[in-house]
Amino acid sequence: MELRSNVPEGPIERKWEKHRFEMKLVNPANKRKHTILMVGSGLAGASAAASLAELGYNVKCYCYQDSPRRAHSIAAQGGINAAKNYQNDGDSVFRLFYDTVKGGDYRSREGNVYRLAELSVEIIDQCVAQGVPFAREYGGLLANRSFGGAQVSRTFYARGQTGQQLLLGAYQALERQIGLGKVEMFSRHEMLDLVLVDGRARGIVTRDMVTGEIESHAGDAVVLGTGGYGNVFYLATYAKGANATAIWRAYKKGAAFANPCFTQIHPTCIPVTGEHQSKLTLMSESLRNDGRIWVPKKARDPRPPNQIPEEDRDYYLERQYPSFGNLVPRDVASRAAKRVADEGRGVGPGGFGVYLDFADAIKRLGANVIGEKYGNLFEMYERITAENPYQVPMRIYPAIHYTMGGLWVDYNLMSTVPGLHVIGEANFSDHGANRLGASALMQGLADGYFVMPYTVGHYLASNKIEKLATDHSAFRQAEAAVADRVRSLLGIGGQRSVDSFHRELGRIMWEYCGMARNQGGLETALEKIPALREQFWREAKVPGENEELNQSLEKAGRVADFLELAELICLDALERRESCGGHFREEFQTPDGEARRDDENFCHVAAWEYAGQGQKPIRHVEPLSFEYVHPSQRSYK
Amino acid sequence: MNLTLHVWRQKNAAARGRFVTYPASDVSPDMSFLEMLDVVNEALIAGGEDPIAFDHDCREGICGTCGMMIDGQAHGPRRATTACQLHMRTYRDGDEITIEPWRADAFPVVKDLVVDRSAFDRIVAAGGFITARTGSAPDGNAVPVPKAAADLAMDAAACIGCGACVAACPNASAMLFTAAKVSHLGLLPQGQPERHTRVRGMVAQMDAEGFGTCTNHFECEAACPKSISVRFIARMNRDYLVATLADRGEPASAEGGTG
Amino acid sequence: MSANAIPTPLRLNRTTGRTSSFLASSIGRKVVMALTGLVLFGYVVVHMLGNLQIYLGPAALNAYAVKLRAMPALLWGVRVLLFASAVLHVWAAVSLTRANVAARGIGYRERRNRESTYASRTMRWSGVILLLFIVYHLLHLTLGTVHPGFVPGDVYHNVVRGFQMGIAPFFYVLAMLALGLHMYHGVWSLMQTVGLSHPRYDRLRYAFAAFITALVVLGNLSFPIAVMTGLLKDRSSSRAATAARR
Ligand SMILES: Cc1cc2nc3c(=O)[nH]c(=O)nc-3n(C[C@H](O)[C@H](O)[C@H](O)COP(=O)(O)OP(=O)(O)OC[C@H]3O[C@@H](n4cnc5c(N)ncnc54)[C@H](O)[C@@H]3O)c2cc1C
Ligand code: HEM
Ligand code: FES
């Protein structure tokens, strides 16, 4: 397998422009002869589907929810970055590019990241034109805030519902195309396989989640925008239905999987309350702008927070990172929380929590101001915990939140399977080993609105793509394989619920491949996961039948894939013998406990190729070179 | 605590449904309502029964997927709270809870508590957008938007499309949903060119879907997990009137080219 | 469950006319109901105020009646307007109610209301009572068909005599309660329906509705009460009647 990044030659600020000129165009009259299958309707998928349809292509779009408007992009709270420099505070495309490469701990591709920063500017224009109600200043111009420790205010936001508003903008554009008949929407349809003909991605097989019908769809190109795979950890900030099935099926059909071990842990989530917990809720990172994080100095201090005097509190982030304090990047803040919890100084039930305290901010600014800024987050917190953050400090703890890894793509966002494009969180492209706050929304929309319309066209124009119908034998085979798999899931005939397996898998992953990893732990996980998988296929119980809405069956299929993917994640984590970004190997740290990169041996993307059932996958390497941003040790001291 | 649930069970759209009673034992007050149902389902699966189907995804009150009638109230008794954010500390040991799907002919039951809300998507497709072809946008700050208008538009745009307004309305009307989108877009300068066609198109589609009409009970606002105001309904009525009066007929080639 | 292309608003408009699409739409019919309701309420208010002249004695009231009759164009204009309004109002009410009932074929086993009022939930019943009452009222005091001692032209006599007898006053009181409910919800509801809403003044809508309703209902109720308590007596009616006839 050859990993050709296809990043154009030339100075970085001219690459995309040059490439746009060099790409081939599809004749306007021919566009409607091409069908593009867009799997996913999140920010990436909806924006791509709408934009491609506007150009005249026939688009079919798929999502597993009952409406495209519900994709998990909707849950993003904080905001979206763009190098507009509306605040005149020194921002620029280059600075956003620089910050993103550095924030990603030098494990991303410079060319891609620069394009992302460039396109960020157009995204805001596009969204404003669609009616996204971004926050405004009194003069009517767009407001910004600084987010996730950035030194400039470049984050655009719509209250605490930025993802929702951006998604609704894209969804509305998509619905318009559906109304015009240019997009055919398949809600409650889950993609269960990718179909290759002559080595190219030519279709998918889906299951209609209401009737159980297994259907084939043929197209000239396939685009996956199916989101991240963080639910492999069971407890995560993802939607319950978020899954890896689409990308995992594509992986098994030949698409390389890049950097699977790069997962992000978000420091400010509401802690777990018990075994029944089904997911974790994120509290926007913006809270760290005014909240102070602390734990008691003494281990297992039984006093309630309000009775712990100042001198018995350890504001550990402010102490360890005086210049960034509570605003250190996510990975740093998360690991620091884990360290104090490991020392027995965690708070709340089970000791898996730290305080995020607003008392000082309320004293300084007044409860009103704090309420205005964070009112809806405080309410959300209170609804879940029954504690009032105006009076008692919040309790927070890190949780799995984002996956930087994903299917490997080149500069055109095409995977190693010709014709298969991957966008949004599902690909690995732009965030390296750690994603900065407010940049996933940016990436999803850049991919969907501004990259797909060009590069898909280029692919279609530069390849001769034969006409193809779903009666081709490749579809027949894929359908049979999917039906077979459904049958075997329903036929396992054990006694244990699928959820209990998922929970157990999550525990293994969190313990051995979570915030801190080491060789021994990963090797243990690599023994436990296959054993659990085997047990799953023997002892799981999947009630009901295929020909109905069967949520147990849906879950079973997803968990079966997670059980395979988990192994790849651990394998990748084991092989990457360095610490970088969200991947922290305990063996590789500086004397004061920070991540130590190994640029000599690991300044590359690891892309895994499926080698067949029971075979160890093959690790390929795409070397990374840095011409513009020179790798240095990240320091937030 | 231990509870008794009376749950609507219906195998599929065509089947007849009925209420079935289930115990929910060892419920922790920290559980969400849906986590309580998860526990009940685990027991059903263990006992060889079909688990209760209910829609959900984000479980943090933003995607609008969850939704059920809990003791005669959409999303249950807590104001401004979706079912997934309703916590069991609202209940006492021994309580009996009746759980039903959203009831509206425009939202046919798919299975148990799951309904088909695609009518909402079609209402949006009938005009709930601003036509802004990708790539054609002017600079984001080219058109200032008064803060008050932007804030009000955001209030309307907060709708999560869960359908609680329809479920709670004695007439199963979708006015609040439709009005929220009409208002969100109609309040912004970018939304002006299509303001009249938008409101007429969306209302026509809303009617065609078989929703009821508004008789100003305001149950919708009370049930809305995002507390969207019925003032937006008045605003839509106004827009609709103006659109009808102002409409001078459409030019013959209104859709020229894009189709 | 895949959504298909749907006709866009523009295509819809070209085939149907503006008025018919307005009247076919739910909001259009609501507006018809609101505007016709406004006409009817307006009449009810004026009617009540005019009737207050009963307290000035038979001569004043009967003279008022004569004055009205002297302007047949106005009288018939108003009657036609009222009749048309009533017909349109009932048409809109019936068609919308049918749509609303059809919109929820299967109801809830349990339902708890939070925001709606008794008045809002009983509009269709208070409306039906009003319709029956209007018919009765016309037969009773306008045509005299169901009146025990109707003297054409002697309005004062007809009212006082009409309220002294049998179930008439009770039906009248019942109708006024229905009117009160219908009017309270109807008055502010019609403002909402035609889009009169403003955060600062919305609360005033309720106060205004309550005030105008109380005014009309109390005014109207005072007549049978005054008769039954003997405050209004059927004095000198025949003389006034002959005067009126001349
Ligand atoms: C709680 C939370 C808060 C966040 N906050 C921020 C923030 O403030 N700023 C920021 O920049 N980023 C934020 N992120 C990250 C960001 O929201 C996501 O990375 C991004 O929205 C992903 O978009 P997407 O389009 O790639 O995928 P998604 O929005 O997840 O969409 C995936 C789509 O694929 C479909 N799909 C999935 N699997 C299948 C299948 N097998 N078959 C058919 N369809 C399928 C789904 O139905 C869905 O339509 C946040 C994430 C979370 C979880
Ligand atoms: C003749 C029998 C009548 C019937 C069947 C009837 C029925 C109704 C119904 C069903 C409604 C809508 C319910 C609602 O908005 O909640 C309504 C509203 C209304 N009715 Fe009547 N009504 C009748 C008579 C009257 C009369 C006599 C008046 C005036 C005196 C009147 C004034 C109104 C008004 C103002 C509204 C409010 C319209 C709106 O909501 O915008 N109605 N009526
Ligand atoms: S599950 Fe998303 S709103 Fe309840």
What descriptors fit this protein?
heterotrimer, A: 637 residues, alpha/beta, Flavocytochrome C3, Chain A, domain 1, Methane Monooxygenase Hydroxylase, Chain G, domain 1, 5-stranded parallel beta sheet, 5-stranded antiparallel beta sheet, 17 helices, 15% strand, globular, C: 246 residues, mainly alpha, 3 helical TM bundles of succinate and fumarate reductases, 11 helices, 0% strand, disordered C terminus, binds flavin-adenine dinucleotide, binds protoporphyrin IX containing FE, binds FE2/S2 (inorganic) cluster
Overall description:
The complex is a heterotrimer of chains A (about 625), B (about 260) and C (about 250). Chain A is globular. The longest helix of chain A has 25 residues, at about 550-575. Chain A is α/β, with parallel strands linked by helices. In chain A, helix 3 (about 45-55) runs parallel beside helix 6, helix 10 (about 360-365) packs antiparallel against helix 11 (about 365-385) and helix 15 (about 520-540) runs antiparallel to helix 16. Chain A has a five-stranded parallel sheet with strand order 5-2-1-9-17. In chain A, about 35% of the residues lie in helices and about 15% in strands. Chain B has two domains: about 5-110, Ubiquitin-like (UB roll) (Roll), CATH 3.10.20; about 120-245, Fumarate Reductase Iron-sulfur Protein, Chain B, domain 2, CATH 1.10.1060. With about 250 residues, chain C is mostly helical. Residues about 5-15 and about 235-245 of chain C have low confidence and may be disordered. The chains are: A alpha/beta (about 625), B alpha+beta (about 260), C mainly alpha (about 250). The complex binds flavin-adenine dinucleotide, protoporphyrin IX containing FE and FE2/S2 (inorganic) cluster. Flavin-adenine dinucleotide binds near residues 238 and 282 of chain A.
Write a brief structural summary.
The complex is a heterotrimer of chains A (637), B (259) and C (246). Chain A has 17 helices and 21 strands. Chain A is of the alpha/beta class and 637 residues long.
SSE blueprint:
The complex is a heterotrimer of chains A (637), B (259) and C (246).
Chain A: H1 15-22, H2 28-31, E1 35-39, H3 43-55, E2 58-62, E3 80-81, H4 93-103, H5 110-130, E4 155-156, H6 162-179, E5 183-186, E6 189-197, E7 200-208, E8 214-218, E9 221-224, H7 245-252, E10 257-258, E11 263-269, E12 292-296, E13 313-314, H8 316-320, H9 330-342, E14 354-357, H10 359-365, H11 367-385, E15 394-403, E16 406-407, E17 420-422, H12 440-462, H13 473-490, E18 496-497, H14 498-513, H15 519-539, E19 540-541, H16 551-575, H17 599-602, E20 604-609, E21 618-623
Chain B: E1 3-9, E2 18-24, H1 33-46, E3 69-70, E4 73-74, E5 96-100, E6 109-111, E7 114-115, H2 118-125, H3 147-157, H4 164-168, H5 175-186, H6 195-208, H7 219-223, H8 231-246
Parallel strand pairs in B: 1-5
Antiparallel strand pairs in B: 1-2, 3-4, 3-5, 6-7
Helix pairs in contact in B: 2-6, 3-5, 5-6, 5-8, 6-8
Chain C: H1 9-15, H2 18-24, H3 26-51, H4 58-69, H5 72-102, H6 118-121, H7 123-142, H8 155-164, H9 168-193, H10 202-228, H11 237-245
The complex binds flavin-adenine dinucleotide (FAD), protoporphyrin IX containing FE (HEM) and FE2/S2 (inorganic) cluster.
FE2/S2 (inorganic) cluster (FES) binds next to loops of chain B.
